[in-house]
């Protein structure tokens, strides 16, 4: 091997080593920031405290992030990505039907809420959302983090079984509803677990993903009542009577 080649190899390894160190520092800062901001609040925590928690200098923070809000956005991206990877690894492989995924995802969510592993991230997310409502520039960036363009506007959400009301919505709208349920339930289970136990999330998910009720005259109750009322008149008259029963009930 020539001297020039050896020098190039050493330089390449040094560059890789610096890049790896930078990535390790960035990860350490993200994890430290999530802990510090969740414990002390967005306004109460400082960049200095984040650096100290990570065992790094304040300069390391500013060499990786533009400032406090940029760091917070990066923490949210990191946390949401971590959660998405965990969900995909556990739920979205094996070609299971949406109905089975609903049960598994709901059980997974309840397990996580009971374990408390996502509490700090949930507190931080909700607090930053409130902060963003007062700062339009931050709001725009946070919306982009919570609602990425990819996968929205078309197709059926994987947690929307065919035949459910949720399945009739575009992917993006169904995703917004499920995100609202997720964030709202996380906050309420932290605030009042005795009034809003985590198991209610699974119940709500089941309601959202249940088969859509048929209109007047098309429901099971209407058909049964119609059959009884129709008697010898026949199926057509029975179905009509069933519709009348349903309409009376709705009225």
From TrEMBL:
Pfam families from the xrefs? Answer: TetR_N
Q: Which residues form the signal peptide?
A: none
Keyword vocabulary terms for this entry:
DNA-binding
State whether keyword Glycoprotein applies.
Answer: no
SUPFAM superfamilies listed in its UniProt record = Homeodomain-like
Looking at the record, the residues that make up the HTH tetR-type domain are: 23-83
InterPro entries, A to Z: Homeodomain-like_sf, HTH-type_TetR-like_transc_reg, HTH_TetR
DNA-binding region ranges: 46-65
Q: Which Gene3D superfamilies match?
A: Tetracycline Repressor, domain 2 (1.10.357.10)
Q: Which domain of life is it from?
A: Bacteria
Q: Which GO terms describe its molecular function?
A: DNA-binding transcription factor activity; transcription cis-regulatory region binding
Segments forming a coiled coil: none
Say yes or no: keyword Transmembrane present: no
Q: Under what name is this protein listed?
A: AcrR family transcriptional regulator
Which organism is the protein's source? Nonomuraea rubra
